[in-house]
Structures are given as structure tokens and as C-alpha cells.
Design a protein that fits this description.
alpha/beta, carbohydrate metabolism, single chain, 34 helices, Alpha-1,4 glucan phosphorylase, pyridoxal phosphate binding, EC 2.4.1.1
């Protein structure tokens, strides 16, 4: 009972947020002079960025608090999105847009003597992810807030995000990404929230003093604290602000005095540092699994802290345990958080004393699992020994879960040993492994893929035996999407404004199907001219980025052909660069006078990081740069062809690159790219795509129409047979590709030795990614691109029609589908 007088004072001063230019300016100056202890005389762009961000953050916190109170008061069901990666990029511009105060802020900082564009550039990217999987989590968290869904993200607050990439002599070099160099205004340290997490130790059987029954107990060996850092996530067109909670590891305060007193000061300090190392760095592998102990430690640390938090929140509601799944939905973003299944079962049985079967039913009703890849090398498997040493009690529970599951299978399918061994959580290999995907499927009520083709493929290939066991209803599809706030409004303000002028405002940004209304303007020449002018302006901006990062000058009138994404053999940047070499050879072989009539001037733009240990991917980067240095300095070629590799591709650079493309490449071997999401970003920004019949390309084709996309190559259903042909020695390398290989081998692009393995992979080692099978078809498609690009007006028409039909790919639609079909949660909007 708080006295009335107190209440009045609190009410008078509480939550007075600014709402006009004056209010913002007063906050800004206050932060410069007090928070930052600076003044008008020494306020640089960094200080201006921090003062701006702190002012916006204050506003966010007010709404964050209201939203959290509302959710608690209404006792709503929440969705918890567990992702080891959140590739957020910059926060300030996004917050200004979502709060709809960007113009206000621009005016205010201008009056204070700054330019908003300069201030925005100061912010380092929050690059806590590798690629598509991490960026998807970031888009989802934006859409959860925008759709007013009560949802939290849980992740790790790495001190170092994905490495920053330098190009030295054409090779990738890695440098640490210390994104927390300056204080981070977008996080709220919750230093009082410290959750102990145990590792190692042993298990014992003890008697429960209440029931008299014996039960298992885990006696942990090493304890580490998880400290919470909260990132408020504003929605667009709502005052709802959700929370992204990131854990940071720190040593328990119980310093080892024993050791200290024995004079082993060094060792006791080393132990402290070991604790901090858990959240030190993001593992830089994309679509590849590497069984490192520290990675498993990260996973358990994050999962244990998050579940402790979730369970604590549920206990406060005083509901009976069987209502847990009515209050809590947990989504597993890939298998990385699968230990959560085991941890919840442990909490419910060992700690809360529930019967095994009762607990297990709660677990299954709580979790959903999203698969993001069918590629074998990306599926997580932990060696049983490693697992059992780090998490001895969890290993026992895994065995018990598996036993119950296999007994169920055996009952349903008697005498099918093959089935039992394929669905078992334990892989009976040497050494034995725990298959995390199997555990995730068994522990969830729903499993989804991320595009229609991918969701079909998981049922037919890696999880087909689970379809046999559970039936196909357990498996579903939610095609990926992207947030139009960042990927249209923020990345491409010009286009976003033009669209708003035609559709009666920015309402389309949270109702993306409204884009359909653009179709009626396709035949308006004035509109097409405006559309084209915006593209040219964006290409000019991209040309400036290319010049500043590579030193190469490119002509914005050329066709900008872009492939930016992680460098991976399955994504086939090698196919692209082989095609570029072919084009170069053709150009050289064409008489000078005929060149401009035969070829459209083109800039081939590459970008992306290779995992530091991925030799072939690094070789591809070197080849691109080697080809670039030959082609770009060939006086005969001039503007007809340029080849550039933009270093350190990240979210902020993507925001410049996507709007500036005419054509982007999504050319993975059919069946390997689960979805792809940059394909959506490029099309939403008025670029066309050249691509294989893979991932979300299939649905993009369905939405924009076959005439507006350049498809080529073999289909997923043919891949197995083609690979078989190669293995039987029946490879056929088309003549065009032979010429390309000859040029490389002749030393035309530098020392051929280092590229030999790349060529041999295609020629002699089975051509696993079917480059030789798709090469001719790829060249055909590129030829068609040249022809279409010459018809300027038609190209613009295609661009407009494509954008008009991209509504389906909003991540808002994804979140609605998850909410309805998997999480069973409802939106709840704060009434302002
Ligand atoms: C990636 N998977 C896929 O390779 C992409 O096609 C997809 O768009 C994104 O997920 C998001 O769904 C992975 O990164 C992983 F980890 F599964 F290999």
C-alpha cells in the first residue's frame, strides 16, 4: 500500500517523454552535459550519436515498462524465441523509424549543429550472427513487436560478433569485431539478475524427504553466473516494446579462496577468465557444425539461464504446472537450443518433483522446432563422452527420453531395427553421438521448414522416418520473410516515399499486401521515370561505396549484378565467377566495334565472409579478386566489365547494396538453400533476380510471375541422379567451362596453383555442387538478362510488378503464421 501522497508525486514526474522537436533537443543537451559529461564545445559525432540514442532509449524504456506491466497484468501467454544469433545491425535509425520520429530527430539534430546521416554512421553494427539464420531472428523480433505479440528473444551477448573482414592481396584476413568499444546505449544492464549455471560434476541418487521416494540429483562441479542485458525492441505503428534478453557470463563471486590462500593466485584468476570466455565470441561458421566443447558450454549456459528466467516468471503466476504450455511457447531456432528440451524435463522432474510422463507432456506441448538446413555437415551431433562430462545429469535424461521414445516406436513398428536406429537420439557410431535434430523433433509438438520446397524436402529426406513415426501433421512450413521497416523504409527511403505517395501513406509498411496497389501505375510513364530515377540514385550511392571500399570506379549506368551472402560452395559463387570469366573471354574475342552492341556494360559485385577455416571458400574470394584486378585494369574493356569484391559485408552494407542492384544472384544447387532471405530483400527493392529453382525462389516466382525472374538450372529432384553420374565417372564439362578452366590454368588470372583445387573439384572430384551441369543453362539465363536489360522500359515494368507482389514476404506474415499454427498466442495491444 503506497501512500496517496507518494503516488501523486510519482505520477507527476513519471514517464514524461518528449513528443516534439523542443523536447528532443532538451533531452539531447541534458545527455551531452550530464550522461556524457561533455559540452557544446566538445560534442563530436560520436557524442551526438550517444546523446541521440540515449534520448530515444529513454522513450523506449517508458514503453518497454508499460508493455511488460500490461503483459504481466493480463497474464498472457508469451512466446520465447531462443536463438544463438541475432544479427541486428544498427539500432538508431530503426528506432527512429519504428517510433515515427525520424523527421523530428533530423530537424532537431540539424538545429543543434549536426547531420542525422553522419550521426547514424557512427553506430557499430550489432553483428551477433553469421548470416540468414541470425538476420531472420532479428526480423522476427521486429515483427513480434510490430504485431503486438507478447514475445521475448533470448540470446547471448557476445563481446565479439562476427569477425570483420579485410582483403589483403586478394585474400580474406579476419580481425576481431569489438562492437562494445564505446558504451552501448541500446542495452540495459540488469546486473542484479544473476543466474547461476552449473557444469560438470556428477549425479547421485537421494531420498526425497517429502515423498520418501528416491530421485536423481546433479551435483555440479563448476558454477558460472549469467547476467542479463536487455535490448528494448520497438514495434512499428504501435507503442508496444518487447524485450530481447542477452546473457553475459561472469565468474561467481565466490572467488576460490582456498586456492588463493595456497598461493595459487594465478590459477584462481585463470578460472575467473574461463568463466568470462563463455560469451566472449560468436562461432563464425554458417551452415557448418564443429564439435567444440566451448560451443556446447555456450549452448547450455544460454539455455539454462533462459529457462530459469521463464520458469521463474511462470511460478509467479501461481498456476498449476500442467498450465505451463498455456502460458509459455518456446521456439527453437535450429537445433542450437535443443538442450532446453532436456533442461525443462530436468527442472520439472528433478527440481519440481513431477512424474516423468506428466513432465514430458508439458515439454512437448511447449516447444516448436525450426529446421534451417538439410545439409548433413550442418546438423549438430555431440559426442556422448563430451556431453556426459559437461552435463552428466542431462545425459541420463537424454537416455531416458530416448528409451521411452524407442519403446513407443517399437510398439508401433515391431521388428523394424532399421527404423529404430535411424530415429534414435543416439547414433551408434564410434564414438557415439547425440543427434540434436532427433532430440528436437521428439521434444516438440511442431517442426517446420523455412520455405515450401525445403519443408517438403525435410519430410522426404532427413526426417522421413519421423514422418513414418508421427505422421506428417507434425511437420509444417512457414516460409521466411523480412521486415519491410528495415529492408524498405530504412534501406531505401526514396523508394519507400514514392510508394507512400501512391498508396496514401506508409500504412503499407505493416500491411505489406497493400503493395499490390502499385500495379495500377505500371503504365504511367511519369511513375516509371520516378521509379527508374530512384534506382539510379541508389546505384550512385552503391558506386560510392564500391569506390571507397575497393578503389574501383564504376559507372552507375552499367547493369549492377550482385551476389552478396556468406561464401559457400553450395551457394556457388564459383559458378558466378566462372561465368564472369566466360564473359570476359567473349568480350576479348569480339571485335571492338561490335562489343557495345553485343554486350551490356556490367559490374559484377561480390561480397561475403568465408568461415576462417573454410579453405575452398577462401580460394573463391581470392579468385574473384584476381579476376577483378585483371579485368578492371584491362584498357580494352573499360566500362564493359568491372569485377569488385566489397569487403566486410554486413547488415549496414546490405542496406546500401540491396537498393542499388539491377540483378542479384541466388544460384545455389537446387535443394541446398533452405530459403534464402536476401532474395526477398533485393526484389522488394526493385531488383530482378537470377536464380535456381531452390528455397524461396520458388515462391518468389509464384508471386511475381515467371516473366519477372530469370530461372535456370537442374531441379532438386534431379540432383541425386546427376551426382551419381559424376561418381560413375560420367562427367561432362561443357566446352564453355573448359575454356574458362583453360584460361585460369594458363595463369591469365595469376598463379594457377592456388585455384587448381577449385577446378579439380568440378573436373575430378564428383562436382558435388553440379557447377558443370548448370553452367550452360546459367550462361543462357545471363544472355536473356542482357537482352531484357536493353529494353529499359520493360525492365522498369518488371521491377514495379515484382515489388507490387512481394507482400507475402513480410516477416509480419511469418509471425502471424507461427502465432496461429504453432504458438497459439494472441496479440495484445496497449491502449494509449
Ligand atoms: C540458413 N540456415 C539457410 O541456409 C538459409 O537458406 C535460410 O534462409 C536461413 O537459414 C534462415 O532460415 C542456417 O544458417 C543453418 F544454420 F541452418 F545452417
Amino acid at each position: 500500500a503506497i501512500p496517496l501522497k507518494c503516488r501523486e508525486i510519482w505520477k507527476r514526474y513519471g514517464a514524461n517523454e518528449f513528443s516534439d522537436v523542443d523536447g528532443f533537443e532538451s533531452q539531447f543537451v541534458k545527455h551531452v552535459e550530464t550522461t556524457l559529461a561533455r559540452s557544446i564545445y566538445n560534442c563530436d559525432n560520436l557524442a551526438a550519436y550517444q546523446a541521440t540514442s540515449n534520448s530515444i532509449r529513454d522513450k523506449l524504456i517508458v514503453h518497454w515498462n508499460k508493455t511488460q506491466h500490461l503483459h504481466t497484468a493480463k497474464d498472457v501467454k508469451r512466446i520465447y524465441y531462443l536463438s544463438l544469433e541475432f544479427l541486428m545491425g544498427r539500432a538508431l535509425d530503426n528506432a527512429l523509424i519504428n517510433l515515427e520520429i525520424r523527421d523530428l530527430a533530423a530537424t532537431a539534430v540539424d538545429e543543434l549543429g549536426f547531420r542525422l546521416e553522419d550521426i547514424l554512421e557512427v553506430e557499430p553494427d550489432a553483428a551477433l550472427g553469421n548470416g540468414g539464420l541470425g538476420r531472420l531472428a532479428a526480423c522476427f523480433i521486429d515483427s513480434l513487436s510490430t504485431g503486438n505479440y507478447p514475445g521475448w528473444g533470448y540470446g547471448l551477448r557476445y563481446q565479439y560478433g562476427i569477425f570483420s573482414q579485410k582483403i589483403v592481396d586478394g585474400y580474406q584476413a579476419e580481425a576481431p569485431d569489438y562492437w562494445l568499444r564505446f558504451s552501448n546505449p541500446w542495452e540495459l544492464p540488469r546486473l542484479e539478475i544473476q543466474i547461476p549455471v552449473d557444469f560438470y560434476g556428477y549425479t547421485t541418487t537421494v531420498k526425497d524427504p517429502q515423498t520418501g521416494k528416491s530421485k536423481k540429483q546433479w551435483n555440479g562441479g563448476e558454477q558460472i553466473l549469467a547476467v542479463a542485458y536487455d535490448f528494448p525492441i520497438p514495434g512499428y505503428g504501435t507503442s508496444n516494446v518487447n524485450n530481447l534478453r542477452m546473457w553475459s557470463s561472469k565468474p561467481t563471486t565466490e572467488f576460490d579462496f582456498q586456492k588463493f590462500n595456497e598461493g595459487d593466485y594465478q590459477d584462481s584468476l585463470a578460472q575467473q577468465q574461463r568463466a568470462e570466455s563463455i560469451t566472449a565470441v560468436l562461432y563464425p561458421n554458417d551452415n557448418f557444425y564443429k564439435g567444440k566443447e566451448l560451443r556446447l558450454k555456450q549452448q547450455y549456459f544460454w539455455v539454462a539461464a533462459s529457462l530459469h528466467d521463464i520458469v521463474r516468471r511462470f511460478i509467479k503466476t501461481k498456476r498449476p504446472w500442467d498450465q505451463f504450455p498455456d502460458q509459455v511457447a518456446i521456439q527453437l531456432n535450429d537445433t542450437h537450443p535443443t538442450l532446453a528440451v532436456v533442461e525443462l524435463q530436468r527442472i520439472l522432474t528433478d527440481l519440481q518433483g513431477l512424474e516423468w510422463d506428466v513432465a514430458w507432456s508439458i515439454v512437448q506441448r511447449t516447444f516448436g522446432y525450426t529446421n534451417h538446413t538439410v545439409m548433413a555437415e550442418a546438423l549438430e551431433k555431440w559426442p556422448v563422452d563430451l556431453f556426459g562430462t559437461l552435463l552428466p545429469r542431462h545425459l541420463e535424461i537424454v537416455y531416458d527420453i530416448n528409451l521411452a521414445f524407442l519403446q513407443m516406436v517399437e510398439k508401433k513398428f515391431p521388428n523394424d531395427r532399421g527404423l529404430l536406429s535411424s530415429v534414435s537420439v543416439i547414433e551408434e557410431s564410434q564414438p557415439k553421438n547425440i543427434r540434436m535434430a532427433n532430440l528436437a523433433i521428439i521434444g516438440s509438438h511442431r517442426v517446420n521448414g523455412v520455405a515450401e520446397l525445403h519443408s517438403q524436402l525435410i519430410k522426404q529426406t532427413i526426417f522421413s522416418d519421423f514422418v513414418k513415426v508421427y505422421g506428417s501433421d507434425k511437420f509444417t512450413n512457414v516460409t521466411n520473410g523480412i521486415t519491410p521497416r528495415r529492408w524498405l523504409r530504412q534501406a531505401n527511403p526514396g523508394l519507400a516515399a514514392l510508394i507512400a505517395s501512391k498508396l496514401g501513406g506508409y500504412g503499407y509498411l505493416n500491411d505489406l499486401n497493400k503493395l499490390k496497389g502499385l500495379e495500377q501505375f505500371v503504365e504511367d510513364p511519369g511513375f516509371r521515370a520516378e521509379w527508374a530515377a530512384i534506382k539510379t540514385a541508389n546505384k550512385t550511392k552503391l558506386a560510392a561505396l564500391i569506390a571507397s571500399t575497393t578503389g574501383v570506379t564504376v559507372n552507375p549506368n552499367s547493369l549492377f549484378d550482385v551476389q552478396v551472402k556468406r561464401i559457400h560452395e553450395y551457394k556457388r559463387q564459383q559458378l558466378n565467377i566462372f561465368g564472369v570469366i566466360w564473359r570476359y573471354l567473349q568480350l576479348k574475342a569480339t571485335p571492338k566495334a561490335e562489343r557495345t552492341t553485343k554486350f551490356v556494360p556490367k559490374v559484377s559485385i561480390f561480397g561475403g565472409k568465408a568461415a576462417p577455416g573454410y579453405y575452398t571458400a577462401k580460394t573463391i574470394i581470392k579468385l574473384v579478386n584476381s579476376v577483378g584486378s585483371v579485368v578492371n585494369s584491362d584498357p580494352e574493356i573499360g566500362d564493359l566489365l568491372k569485377v569488385v569484391f566489397i569487403p566486410d559485408y554486413n547488415v549496414s552494407k546490405a542496406e546500401v547494396i540491396c537498393p542499388g542492384s539491377d540483378l542479384s544472384e541466388h544460384i545455389s544447387t537446387a535443394g541446398t538453400e533452405a530459403s534464402g532471405t536476401s532474395n526477398m530483400k533485393f526484389v522488394l527493392n526493385g531488383g530482378l533476380i537470377i536464380g535456381t529453382v531452390d528455397g524461396a525462389n520458388v515462391e518468389i516466382t509464384r508471386e511475381v510471375g515467371e516473366d519477372n525472374i530469370f530461372l535456370f538450372g537442374n531441379l532438386a529432384e534431379d540432383v541425386e541422379d546427376l551426382r551419381h553420374e559424376h561418381h560413375m565417372g560420367r562427367s561432362h564439362i561443357p566446352d564453355s567451362l573448359v575454356q574458362v578452366f583453360d584460361a585460369i590454368s594458363s595463369g591469365q588470372f595469376g598463379t594457377p596453383d592456388e585455384f587448381q583445387s577449385l577446378l579439380d573439384g568440378v573436373r575430378f572430384h564428383g562436382d558435388h555442387y553440379l557447377v558443370s551441369d548448370d553452367f550452360e543453362s546459367y550462361l543462357e539465363a545471363q544472355k536473356l538478362v542482357d537482352e531484357e536489360f536493353r529494353k529499359k522500359e520493360d525492365w522498369v515494368r518488371k521491377s514495379i510488378i515484382s515489388v507490387a507482389n512481394m507482400g507475402f514476404f513480410s516477416s509480419d506474415r511469418c509471425i502471424e503464421e507461427y502465432a496461429e499454427n504453432i504458438w497459439n498466442i494472441e496479440p495484445l495491444e496497449e491502449k494509449v
